[in-house]
Amino acid sequence: MRKMLKSIEGSRRAIATVVAVLMVAGSVRAQDDNLHYESVPEATGSDWSEQPSVVGSGVDSSLPDDVLPDDGVADNPVTGAILSPDVDPATLPHFEDSYSTATACDDRPCPGYKSWCKGCERCAAAPYGVINRLIDKDHGCWAVRTDALILWRDAPPGRALVETGDAPALPFLNANQLDSTAAAGPRFSLFRGNPCTGDAWEATYLRAANFRSQRYFYASEGPFALANPGIYGNGQAQNFDQGYANLGSSLQSFEFNRHVCHGKHLRWIAGFRWVQWNEQFTLADQAPGDVVDFYQNTCVNDLYGGQIGLDAYLLSLPWLRVDSVLKAGAYYNTAVQNSIYASGPVDALTSQGVSVAGTPASCAFVGELGFTGIVPITDCLDFRIGYFGLWLSGIAQPTQQLSGQSLIPGEPIAGSLNMRGGTLVQGVSLGLEGRW
After folding, report:
1. Which of 144, 209, 358, 405 sits between 20 and 30 A of 381, alpha carbons compared?
2. Residue 238 · residue 225 · CB < 8 Å
3. Residue 226: is it exposed, middle or buried by C-beta count within 10 angstroms (0-12/13-18/19+)?
């Protein structure tokens, strides 16, 4: 009897286990059926694309009855699928709502750049989810900037050039006194930007020419002589009565950059840049008897390299916006210098020269700093005024080549290249920005 009771008890436990397993499996299947996304059948009698979409937890009565769940619907704005009532619609991304008002536009990654092409309005006009935003070719804008640059170049490093010819000799002209007059030039920038993300591509070209510094030596102030250590090996023995010194420079640059938005007031910048700095120094003198000495050195610096930086959005008022730009990079400088010396009577000059290129050239540095105030004229046109500064180092400059060459009549010619120079170009910019 005891064995029979144990057998019945074991059978009862086995049956209970099987029933429990079946109940659990049925419950999981039921949950799975409730949570899956159901495909939306094609509407009958009209174009489904023209039917109003359902946003949030409301029910659109214009939808066919046979596609509505019994307990209500929640429309997924990304896929357009109908969700079961067990899914909370508040947890779904509603991209339409997030860009539907000007206030929402201020929450975009870079609201400081929303003026591009009326960026808020474009974001609000996009009537669909994130997938379509990624492939929308028209969801971007162009911006063109044209600026007039008025710049000054600072003087080269110190180097004695001319002194008085009487004893005791006194300094008369040093290279660090050759500050330039103002030079003008254009700057053109083209941007392709996304007003919803703040990211952009940029191409910029600028040129400034005819930086000029001149000094004259009058006979009433003479006599004069070359200051120690002379020029091209020619020293104080070559006194003169009058003459002039001239230092001219020019600058041009092209850059291609990517701007990536970071937060509400900052965009990172990374790209490629080419900078060319040309400079020429001339010293001409005349002694009694129409004897002339002519010294000239020309340096051309072509810098190629990458740069990184930032574009910061500093201030916004109803009538004024202030932006700042900081960029810097290391560059490969393919510099070359050319030296010429001519001497003799005016009608029988003899000349000789030497040219030296840097191969491989040393590393150079370029840094740029700018501040710009922007005043709106119309919705798509702004007036721009600001500060522009460009610092170059590791470049060849003419006044630093004067001691490295040997151009003495009747003696062997020798040359070298000095690339330890640097200069600062700075000034103001005035221009316009248009967007479409």
Report:
1. 209
2. yes
3. buried
Q: Which tens digits make up the pLDDT trace of 313-324?
A: 898 888 899 999
Contact 297/281 with Cβ under 8 angstroms?
Answer: yes
Lookup: tokens for 286:
């005349």
> How far apart, in whole angstroms, are the C-alpha atoms of residue 186 and residue 192?
20
Is the pLDDT assigned to residue 133 strictly greater than 50? no
Q: How far from 416 is each of 237, 328, 335, 404, 408, CA to CA, in Å? A: 24, 29, 12, 6, 15
pLDDT at 112 over 90: no
254: tokens are 């092209």
Residue 131 is which amino acid?
A: I
DSSP-based helix, strand, coil % in the chain, nearest 5: 20, 50, 35
- The mean pLDDT of 395-408, rounded to a whole number, is 94
- Give 264-317 as a DSSP string: SSEEEEEEEEEEEEEEEEEEEEEETTTEEEEEEEEEEEEEEEEEEEEEEEEEEE
CB atoms closer than 10 angstroms to residue 319: 7
Those residues whose C-beta lies under 8 Å from the C-beta of residue 144, and which sit 6 or more positions away, are 188, 189, 190, 191, 433, 434, 435
Are 304 and 332 within 8 A, CB to CB? yes
SS3 assignment, position 431: strand
pLDDT of 70 above 70: no
The amino acid at 90: A
**For the chain, what percent of residues have pLDDT higher than 70?**
67
Show the domains of the chain with their CATH numbers.
Answer: 65-135 (no CATH), 141-435 (2.40.128)
Give 108's strand partners: none
Q: In whole angstroms, give the CA distance from residue 136 to residue 133.
A: 5
| Both structure tokens of 35 | 């949570």
Residue 277's Cβ-side half-sphere holds a number of Cα atoms within 13 Å equal to 26
Q: By the 8 A CB rule, do 324 and 305 touch?
A: no
> pLDDT band for position 14 (50/70/90)?
low
As given in the structure block, the two tokens for residue 279 are 């400079």
pLDDT in tens, 239-267: 899 999 999 999 999 999 999 988 878 89
Higher pLDDT, 290 or 49: 290
CA count, 13 A, side-chain hemisphere, 382: 25
Q: What is the pLDDT of residue 101?
A: 37
Cβ atoms 193, 252 nearer than 8 A: no
